[in-house]
C-alpha cells in the first residue's frame, strides 16, 4: 500500500460515518472501520465481493425504483442502480434509508451518494457516506408522541381547567385576562393578581406586532384555532401555543419549549457541522487521490481549499529549521509574502504551535492582552489565526496556518480545527514521501553517474585492449568525457620533445566555440613553472581565468580559444610526461568537483596505458609475422585455437614430440595425450581463461612419442585483431621435466651445504665458548691455538660460500682453480686443526702423519675436501 493509500484509509477509518466506495459497476472497493462496526461485516467479506444493495431493505429499494421511474421517466431495476441513478446524472442524491446489519437488525441512516470521476470526467466509481439518524428519528417520534398527548390534554383541559397541566390563560373579547393558571404565572413570570382584568397588550406591550399578536388576532377574527411556535425576547423563551376562539374570547394553552429549541438548534448545528465536515472530507479525499504534476501544485491546492473552507484570505505552509521560519508555499492577498521568505520563528504566531506541538487558534488577537505587542499584530494586524503543526517522521517540520486581518465573529469550530489537522497530517505524509523520493532520486543520480563513469572506464579499457589504433582510443576519450562532463571542449594536448609547447591531437567541442584541433600552441610559462609539477602528477584547476589571480601569460594564451574555466591532468607514458588531458568551460565560470577531477585523472591513466600499448603494436605485429614464419622450426611446442575453443594449429615441434599427426591433434584430439590425473585441471584452467580472455600458464604431463609422460609448461595468451576483436588463443609448451629434476637436485644440494656450513660454525662456536668461559686463561698458548682454529674455520666458511658460487660458475663454464705450490704436511696439519674441536666433542682421536712433500693444489678447495 502506498503512503497516499495508507493515509486515505486512516482518514476514512477515523470518520464517524460509514464510508463505502464502489466501482462503476457497484462492487465495493472501500469499506471503512465505521461501516464495519455498524453493519457487522469485515472489509474482507465485502471488498471486491458484493454491492452495497446487500445492506438495504428490498421493499425500500422497490419503492425507490418506482419513484425514480416516475421522476426520471426510465425504468431502474431494484438494486444498486437505485442508489446511483441521480449521481450518474451529476445530481445530488441524499435521502433516508434503512441499513440491515449482518445479524438482521436494522437502523436508519442518512445516505449521500456521489459519483467519482477521472480527469476526463468519466465515472470510475461511487462514494456513499452515511450517518446514523436513529437518535433523530427517535426524537421526532418522541416529539410527535408528546404533541399528540399535549393535544389530548388540551382538549380535556378545555372542559376541566383545574386539571390542565399546560400553562393556560383566557382572554375576553376586549383582550383582557379572565383566567391565569399557576403554570402560566410561572411561564409568564407574572402573578395572576397583577394581570387579571388587564389588557394583554398593555401587560406585554413588547408582544404587539409579534407572532403572538398576529396569531391571536387571526384566531379571533376568523374564529379558528391556531397553533404556532414563537420566541418572546423579553422572557428569552420559546413557546408552543394553541389558541382557541370562543364566544367569550380566546383560550390560550402554551408550553415553554426553550430547552427543546436549544436541543434542536444544537442538533441542527451539529448536523450542519457534520455535513460541512463530510464535504471537507471529500475535498481531502480529492487532494489525496489527485496525481499532481509537481509537488508544489499539491501544496497550492491544500492552501486554496483551506482558505475557501475557513473563509480566510491567507494560507501558509512553512518549514521551521532551528529558529528560522521559512515560507514553503503561500496563498495570500498580502503581496510581500512569497515562497522562500524567512522570518525569526519567535516573531510569528506559529512559534507557539511549534513549541507546544498542537493546534493554536485566535478569533480576535487584539482581545488577547499578551498578544497586542506581538510583532505580527503590530506590523500586519492579523486578527484571526489558525495554525496546526506539520509532522514529518514524528518531528515538527513546520506549520499549516491560515490568517485574516478581520476579526472572526465566532470561534473556530471543532470540525474546522479537525479538518486543518487532518490536512496538516496529509501534508506531512506527502512531504515525507517527497523527501524520500528526492533522496532516492539523488541516490539514483549518483548511482547513474557512478555507473556511467564505470561504463566509460570499461569502454575505454575495452578499446585499449581491442583496438590497435591509438587515434580511435584518443577520439573516444575526448568525446565521452565531453558528453559526461557537459564541458564545452575536451582535448588531448601532446607535448613536443623539448616540452616547450605542443599540438592539440584530439578534440571534442560544442559548435559555439573555436576548433583548435591540430594547432601548435606554445605556453611560455609551462616549461619553467609547471613542467616538473605535471610530471609529479599535478592537477590544474581554474574556476575562472578572469578572477585576477591567474598568470597574465596563461590568460593571454587561453583567451583566444574562449576559455573561461579549465581542468588539466597529466598523461604519463611509462613515467614520462607525454601530454595533457584538458577540459574547457567557455560559456561561464565553473567550479570543478572532486568527482570530475578524479574521473579525468583515471581516464588520463587509461590513455597512458593506450600510449604504452601503441608502442608495442608494431613490435607485436612483427613478432607475430616472425612467429608464423618460424613456427615449424621453433624448438618449442606451439599451438593455436579459435573462438570455438578448438585447437586449429600445432607446429611441427608439437607433432614430433607427441608422434601424432596434425589431423589427430586438431580440435580436441590433443587431450588424448594429457595424463589422466591432470586432464580435469588442464581443461578447467583452459575454459576459465576463455571466459575471462586472460593469459594463463599451466603445468601438466603430456605423453611423448615414446609413451613417456613429460612435464610441460603451457603458456597461452588471447589473440585480438587490430580492431580489438577476440580471435582465440595462441600458446607454447616447453618440456620442464629436466628443470623440475634440477630443482629437486638443488633442494638436495642445499641440504648438504647446510651441513657443510654447520661444521666450521660448530668449531668456531666451541673455540669461542672455551675462550669466553676463561678455561684457558692460564694457558695462553692453547688459547692462541683455539683462536687460530676459529680464524681458520671462518676462512673455511668463506671458501664454502665461494664454492657455492663456483657451482654456478662450473655450470656456466666460468670456474677457475687457483693452483699454487703447497706443502702437503702443512695442508694436512691445517685441515686437522680445523676439525680438532669437532673431534674433541665427539671424543675422536685424530692422528697426523704428515708427508713433507710439495704439491700443486688450490688450498681452499683442499680444506673443503
Short structural summary:
By secondary structure, the chain is an alpha+beta fold. Helices cover 47% and strands 23% of the residues.
Describe the structure.
With 865 residues, the protein is an alpha+beta fold. The chain contains 26 helices and 29 strands. It has a 6-stranded antiparallel sheet with strand order 13-12-11-16-15-14, with helices on both faces. It has a 6-stranded antiparallel sheet with strand order 19-18-17-22-21-20, sandwiched between helices. Strands 2-1-5-4-3 form a 5-stranded antiparallel sheet, sandwiched between helices. Strand 4 (106-117) and strand 5 (123-132) form a beta hairpin. The longest helix has 53 residues, at 414-466. The chain starts with a helix and ends with a helix. The mean pLDDT is 83.
Amino acid at each position: 500500500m502506498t503512503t497516499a493509500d495508507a493515509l486515505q484509509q486512516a482518514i476514512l477509518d477515523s470518520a464517524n460515518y460509514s464510508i463505502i466506495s464502489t466501482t462503476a459497476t457497484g462492487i465495493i472497493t472501500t469499506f471503512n472501520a465505521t461501516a464495519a462496526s455498524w453493519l457487522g461485516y469485515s472489509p474482507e467479506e465485502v471488498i471486491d465481493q458484493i454491492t452495497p444493495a446487500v445492506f438495504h431493505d428490498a421493499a425500500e429499494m422497490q419503492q425507490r425504483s418506482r419513484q425514480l421511474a416516475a421522476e426520471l421517466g426510465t425504468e431502474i431495476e431494484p438494486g444498486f442502480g437505485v442508489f446511483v441513478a441521480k449521481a450518474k446524472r451529476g445530481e445530488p442524491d441524499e435521502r433516508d434509508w434503512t441499513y440491515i446489519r449482518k445479524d438482521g437488525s436494522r437502523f436508519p441512516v442518512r445516505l449521500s451518494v456521489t459519483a467519482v470521476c477521472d480527469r476526463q470526467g468519466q465515472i470510475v466509481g461511487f462514494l456513499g457516506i452515511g450517518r446514523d439518524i436513529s437518535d433523530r428519528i427517535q426524537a421526532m417520534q418522541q416529539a410527535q408522541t408528546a404533541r399528540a398527548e399535549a393535544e389530548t390534554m388540551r382538549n380535556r383541559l378545555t372542559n376541566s381547567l383545574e386539571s390542565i397541566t399546560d400553562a393556560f390563560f383566557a382572554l375576553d373579547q376586549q383582550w383582557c385576562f379572565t383566567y391565569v393558571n399557576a403554570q402560566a404565572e410561572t411561564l409568564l413570570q407574572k402573578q395572576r393578581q397583577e394581570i387579571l382584568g388587564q389588557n394583554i397588550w398593555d401587560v406585554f406591550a413588547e408582544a404587539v406586532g409579534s407572532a403572538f399578536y398576529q396569531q391571536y388576532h387571526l384566531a379571533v377574527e376568523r374564529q379558528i384555532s391556531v397553533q404556532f411556535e414563537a420566541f418572546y425576547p423579553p422572557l428569552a423563551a420559546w413557546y408552543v401555543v394553541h389558541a382557541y376562539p370562543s364566544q367569550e374570547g380566546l383560550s390560550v394553552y402554551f408550553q415553554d419549549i426553550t430547552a427543546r429549541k436549544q436541543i434542536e438548534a444544537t442538533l441542527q448545528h451539529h448536523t450542519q457541522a457534520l455535513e460541512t465536515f463530510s464535504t471537507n472530507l471529500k475535498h481531502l479525499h480529492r487532494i489525496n487521490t489527485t496525481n499532481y504534476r509537481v509537488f508544489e501544485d499539491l501544496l497550492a491546492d491544500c492552501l486554496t481549499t483551506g482558505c475557501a473552507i475557513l473563509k480566510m484570505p491567507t494560507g501558509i505552509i512553512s518549514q521551521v529549521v532551528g529558529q528560522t521560519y521559512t515560507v514553503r508555499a503561500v496563498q495570500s492577498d498580502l503581496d510581500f509574502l512569497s515562497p522562500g521568505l524567512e522570518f525569526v520563528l519567535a516573531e510569528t504566531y506559529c512559534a507557539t504551535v511549534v513549541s507546544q506541538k498542537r493546534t493554536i487558534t485566535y478569533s480576535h488577537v487584539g482581545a488577547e492582552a499578551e498578544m497586542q505587542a506581538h510583532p505580527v499584530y503590530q506590523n500586519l494586524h492579523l486578527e484571526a489565526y489558525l495554525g496546526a503543526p506539520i509532522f514529518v517522521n514524528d518531528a515538527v517540520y513546520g506549520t499549516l496556518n491560515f490568517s485574516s486581518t478581520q476579526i472572526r465573529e465566532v470561534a473556530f469550530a471543532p470540525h474546522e480545527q479537525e479538518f486543518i489537522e487532518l490536512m496538516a497530517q496529509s501534508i506531512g505524509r506527502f512531504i515525507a514521501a517527497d523527501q524520500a523520493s528526492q533522496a532516492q532520486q539523488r541516490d539514483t543520480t549518483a548511482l547513474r553517474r557512478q555507473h556511467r563513469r564505470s561504463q566509460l572506464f570499461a569502454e575505454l579499457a575495452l578499446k585499449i585492449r581491442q583496438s590497435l589504433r591509438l587515434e580511435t582510443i584518443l577520439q573516444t576519450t575526448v568525446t565521452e568525457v565531453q558528453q559526461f562532463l557537459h564541458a564545452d571542449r575536451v582535448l588531448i594536448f601532446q607535448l613536443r620533445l623539448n616540452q616547450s609547447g605542443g599540438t592539440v591531437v584530439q578534440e571534442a567541442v560544442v559548435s559555439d566555440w573555436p576548433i583548435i584541433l591540430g594547432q601548435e600552441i606554445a605556453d611560455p610559462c609551462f616549461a619553467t613553472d609547471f613542467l616538473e609539477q605535471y610530471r609529479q602528477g599535478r592537477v590544474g584547476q581554474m574556476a575562472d581565468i578572469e578572477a585576477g589571480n591567474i598568470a597574465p601569460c596563461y590568460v593571454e594564451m587561453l583567451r583566444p580559444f574562449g576559455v573561461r574555466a579549465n581542468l588539466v591532468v597529466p598523461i604519463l607514458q611509462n613515467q614520462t610526461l607525454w601530454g595533457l588531458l584538458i577540459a574547457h568551460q567557455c560559456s561561464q565560470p565553473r567550479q570543478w568537483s572532486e568527482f570530475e577531477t578524479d574521473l579525468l585523472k583515471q581516464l588520463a591513466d587509461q590513455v597512458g596505458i593506450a600510449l604504452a600499448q601503441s608502442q608495442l603494436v608494431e613490435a607485436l605485429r612483427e613478432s607475430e609475422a616472425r612467429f608464423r614464419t618460424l613456427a615449424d622450426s621453433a624448438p618449442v611446442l606451439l599451438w593455436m585455437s579459435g573462438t570455438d575453443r578448438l585447437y586449429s594449429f600445432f607446429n611441427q615441434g608439437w607433432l614430433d614430440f607427441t608422434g601424432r599427426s596434425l589431423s589427430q591433434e586438431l580440435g580436441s584430439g590433443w587431450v588424448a595425450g594429457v595424463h589422466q590425473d591432470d586432464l580435469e585441471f588442464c581443461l578447467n584452467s583452459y575454459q576459465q581463461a576463455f571466459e575471462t580472455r586472460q593469459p594463463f600458464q599451466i603445468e601438466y604431463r603430456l605423453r611423448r612419442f615414446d609413451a613417456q609422460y613429460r612435464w610441460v609448461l603451457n603458456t597461452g595468451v588471447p589473440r585480438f585483431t587490430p580492431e580489438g576483436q577476440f580471435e582465440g588463443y595462441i600458446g607454447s609448451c616447453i618440456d620442464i621435466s629436466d628443470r623440475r629434476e634440477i630443482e629437486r637436485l638443488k633442494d638436495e644440494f642445499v641440504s648438504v651445504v647446510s651441513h657443510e656450513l654447520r661444521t666450521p660454525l660448530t668449531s668456531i662456536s666451541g673455540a669461542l665458548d672455551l675462550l669466553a668461559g676463561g678455561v684457558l686463561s692460564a694457558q695462553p698458548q692453547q688459547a692462541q691455538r683455539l683462536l687460530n682454529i676459529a680464524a681458520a674455520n671462518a676462512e673455511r666458511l668463506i671458501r664454502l660460500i665461494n664454492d657455492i658460487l663456483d657451482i654456478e660458475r662450473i655450470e656456466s663454464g666460468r670456474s677457475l682453480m687457483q693452483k699454487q705450490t703447497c706443502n702437503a704436511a702443512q695442508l694436512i696439519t691445517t685441515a686437522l686443526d680445523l676439525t680438532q674441536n669437532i673431534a674433541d666433542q665427539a671424543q675422536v682421536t685424530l692422528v697426523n702423519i704428515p708427508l713433507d712433500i710439495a704439491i700443486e693444489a688450490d688450498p681452499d678447495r683442499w680444506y673443503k675436501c
